Amino acid sequence: MELSPLQIARYSYQPKLPEILKNDISKIKAVEGEITASVSDQEEIKKLFPNTYGMREVSFAEGENHAADRVLTVGVILSGGQAPGGHNVITGLYDALKKTRKDNILIGFKNGPSGLLNDDYIVFDDEYIDQFRNTGGFDIIGSGRTKLESEEQFEVAKAVAEKHALDAVVIIGGDDSNTNAAVLAEYFKAHGSCVQVIGCPKTIDGDLKNDVIEISFGFDTATKTYSELIGNIERDANSAKKYWHFVRVMGRSASHIALECALQTQPNICFISEEVEQKKMSLSTIADQIVSSIVKRSENGENFGVAIIPEGLIEFVPEVKKLISELNDLMALKQEEFNALTEWEDKYSFMEKNLTKESFAVFSILPIDIEKQLLMDRDPHGNVQVSRIETEKLLISIVETKLKKLKEEGKYKGKFSALNHFFGYEGRCAFPSNFDADYCYSLGYNAFMLISYGYTGYLSTITNLSKPATEWKAGGMPITKMMNLEQRHGAKKPVIRKALVELDGKPFKYFESHRDEWAEKTSFKYPGAIQYYGPASVCDITTRTLALEKE
User: Fold this and answer.
1) Do 428 and 125 form a contact (C-beta atoms < 8 A)?
2) In the chain, is it the N or the C terminus that has fewer CB atoms within a 10 Å radius of its CB?
3) Which tens digits make up the pLDDT trace of 353-365?
């Protein structure tokens, strides 16, 4: 396979480590901190995790290493959606294992947790691992979304782990995947298995974070990739001066990506789903905000602009949220009856008959394409697949109707021509930024430290990330600390709580204080492509979100 010049160059990049992890392992000690408790539902979570609840946070410092000197065999799994830097978590783990003892072994289970269940694996060696250093994607072993939930699955996982004489399993994933890691760690410990389970925090959505996990890996690269594209669109809009661009970006439950892209590019409009929900903004109110910007800018002779829309926005609009909830319940009860209908007119009549009057009124005013998208196949939880709903097209349609009315009333004389975009998969497998390459390598290297000290049910944590990598801190946090109970499939289940955009946090407050100006004036910023070579102020810079949070 012929390689691009950038591929070749990135292979030789040596990721930076926190100063403490550069030491010989014999000079790194584990320091235990306070006993932890779950973010809520403490008594219930404690009952569900009697063997792994209430463990102490861990940090690594200079000192005598008291970990047992042993040969280690470790399994690693990539779980869930792709995120830039995943390969470096594996190479960091591999390098730490081999640096300590050449006879340590790293096994990669293929295509997610199913690889562990099916005993489908590869044993890593230098030649294979070197092909993936500092590269994007998850193609080193593939990923998957299999959930580890049943007793039967746990028993199979335990048997496969014992077959390979695994000392530990490292699960690289997001909130659901690391919930799996916590449950698996508890099961192993409860059933007399010595196999440790360590998680690594991954998701481009940025919603796996707390006071210890400052950022999930992949968020930095993905938002820089999207921001480059949005900046390019802004430059084009400012050049052609005739289009309004509506850009939908990933982020169903949380709007961290939308907010970060807005901070980097300063568009005319950006919605934050968490604010929409708090203020109970209707679709009409959202459209009015866009229309206000369009009208004001047209009065300045600027019939162009850019709007950023989070993927999950529509789910946070109260009347649409109610509609979606009714649709989910309706399809759970009458899916077969609905599926038997072939003509759209019959499906439409079915909705009119079965939805409440209020929800059908919302359904009926939607463009037909959006109506059909709401009725597509459900996700594994039986819910509407919100990511398939083209919210940007819906907003364009509503805005066009409102502008037409204003024009008829003589209140708007400008021109409105809209283009729509969705940026999602473009960012999930990008070449990782230097920050993500360093951060992920450190997470993998640090996972080895947690394994060597015998910890299980922990997330690998690297903190102080707004500082240069040499000043980063290494440690571990019990996964149960992040857990709460949520309704899933009709029952309360323990899951890692998603971190939403904090409306009283510094990043949102900065955006809020500038958005009125951006809505009227052309204030675009053009971040350009990710830089890998040059001054640290350009190449190693982190997200605006993290910089503002740590001011």
Assistant:
1) no
2) N
3) 999 999 999 888 8
Q: Tell me what pLDDT residue 492 has.
A: 87
pLDDT in tens, 450-482: 999 999 999 999 999 999 999 999 999 999 999
b or e along 149-177 (b: 16 or more beta carbons within 10 Å of the residue's beta carbon)?
eeeebbebbbebbeebebbbbbbbbbbbb
Q: Is the pLDDT of residue 442 over 80?
A: yes
Under a CB-based contact definition with an 8 Å cutoff, are residues 102 and 86 in contact? no
Identify whether the C-beta of residue 461 lies closer than 8 Å to the C-beta of residue 216: no
Burial of 383 (0-12, 13-18, 19+ CB in 10 A): middle
Break the chain down into helix, strand, coil percent, rounded to 5: 45, 15, 35
**Secondary structure (DSSP) of 308-359:** EEETTGGGGSHHHHHHHHHHHHHHHHHHHHHHT--SHHHHHHHHHHHS-HHH
The answer to whether 428 and 224 are in contact (CB under 8 A) is no
CA distance 302 to 299: 7
User: By the 8 A CB rule, do 150 and 182 touch?
Assistant: no
Radius of gyration of the chain (CA): 25
Q: Which one of 205, 220, 436, 540 is the catalytic residue? A: 205
Residue 534 neighbours by CB under 8 Å, 6+ apart: none
Tens digits of per-residue pLDDT, 279-316? Answer: 999 999 999 999 999 999 999 999 999 999 999 999 89
In what helix (H) or strand (E) does residue 501 lie, and over which residues does it extend?
A: none
Q: What is the pTM of this model?
A: 0.94
What's residue 487's pLDDT? 78
- Closest Cα to residue 526, out of 267, 188, 194? 267
The DSSP element (H or E) to which 223 belongs, if any, is helix 219-240
Decide: 270 and 511 in contact? Cβ < 8 Å.
Answer: yes
Query: What is each CA distance from 155 to 18, 47, 192, in whole angstroms?
Result: 38, 21, 12
Query: Nearest-CA neighbor of 104 among 161, 162, 168, 26?
Result: 168
| pLDDT of 60 above 80 | yes
205 is catalytic: yes
**E-only strand ranges, 88-237:** 105-109, 121-123, 168-173, 196-201
Domains and CATH numbers, the chain: 28-214+432-496 (3.40.50.450), 219-424+505-549 (3.40.50.460)
The four Cα atoms 314, 203, 159, 198 give a dihedral, to 10 degrees, of -130
- At residue 318, φ and ψ (nearest 5 deg) are -50, -50
Crossing angle of the two packed helices 256-265 and 219-240, in degrees rounded to 10: 50
For 266, phi and psi rounded to 5 degrees? 55, 60
Distance separating alpha carbons of residues 461 and 439, to the nearest angstrom:
10
Chain length of the chain = 551
Tell me if 462 sits within 8 A of 212, measured CB to CB: no
CA nearest neighbour of 168 among 529, 457, 515, 485: 457
Q: How far apart are CA 444 and CA 92, in angstroms?
A: 5
**11/20 Cα distance (integer angstroms):** 24
